[in-house]
Amino acid sequence: MNTLEGRLRSARHQGRKLLAPYVTGGISDDWTRYLAAYQDAGADAVEIGLPFSDPMLDGGTIQEASDRALARGASADRILAELAEVDLTVPRVVMTYTNLVVRQGVETFCGKLRDAGVSGLIVPDLPLGESGELEGAAAASGVDLVLLAAPSTSPERLREIGERSRGFVYAVSLMGTTGERDQLAESGLALARALKAVTDRPVLLGFGVSRPAHAVQACRTGDGVVVASALMRRVIDGAGPAEVGADVDAMRTELDRSADEPTGSP
């Protein structure tokens, strides 16, 4: 039950809506304090982005955050070393791109994740057909490789993703990049429903979850949400760990309130 998937399954079994907030590693001297603030605010897992010079699935906000971190000298090794020093009880999930993984070799990279206390890995640009080697290396290091599904994914591929993903299944809400949005895409809600029909693994919806109301809406079909760009916009604009943690706390409060509502409540 100490694996990422075990922890999320246990929380879901208790009726909890899952919340995984994100921070770009190395964006500031005190970036790890955001992780502690997220944990204190009720996060079920924390996601750490390793900044990359060509983040193809990230919108303007995460790109700006990555650029800032890289300009400060952030690197995958430095971020993981700093992460290893953080005292957290919630699971740590790293998001990165294939280039950073294969540059070090998949076994070496996964070993460094393990040593940093990481229990989950997301590599959004890794094709499913080419993920076998990383799946094996991650499993050998005790790291759950989280796979992504998109609204365009075929029913057959959805079933395969549900079977092969570990930790949770990441439901991408729309065909596009990450970013803050005024409304949660209906395509994401439909995708979450389709995934729930073919897998018992937790399904977390991401891309565009920007407000507490979005999180509540997403959790009516899925098991939880990943929140990234909305929080990173606050960080870029100067909000400190306590302020961004308050945003996560507001989302946690609304999720808990919705979970307590009787079925059929408006």
From TrEMBL:
What Pfam families does the record tag this protein with?
Trp_syntA
Check the record and name the HAMAP family matching this protein: Trp_synth_alpha
Which top-level group of life is the source organism from? Bacteria
Subunit arrangement?
Tetramer of two alpha and two beta chains.
Organism equals Actinokineospora xionganensis
Its pathway, per UniProt, is: Amino-acid biosynthesis; L-tryptophan biosynthesis; L-tryptophan from chorismate: step 5/5
Arranged from A to Z, the UniProt key words for this protein are: Amino-acid biosynthesis, Aromatic amino acid biosynthesis, Lyase, Tryptophan biosynthesis
Query: Which chemical reaction does it catalyze?
Result: (1S,2R)-1-C-(indol-3-yl)glycerol 3-phosphate + L-serine = D-glyceraldehyde 3-phosphate + L-tryptophan + H2O
Q: Where is the active site?
A: E47 (proton acceptor), D58 (proton acceptor)
Spell out the InterPro entries in the cross-references: Aldolase_TIM (IPR013785), RibuloseP-bd_barrel (IPR011060), Trp_synthase_alpha_AS (IPR018204), Trp_synthase_suA (IPR002028)
What protein does this entry describe?
A: Tryptophan synthase alpha chain
Q: What does this protein do?
A: The alpha subunit is responsible for the aldol cleavage of indoleglycerol phosphate to indole and glyceraldehyde 3-phosphate.
Instruction: Identify a single GO molecular function assigned to this protein.
Output: tryptophan synthase activity
The record's similarity note reads: Belongs to the TrpA family.
Stated EC number for the protein is 4.2.1.20
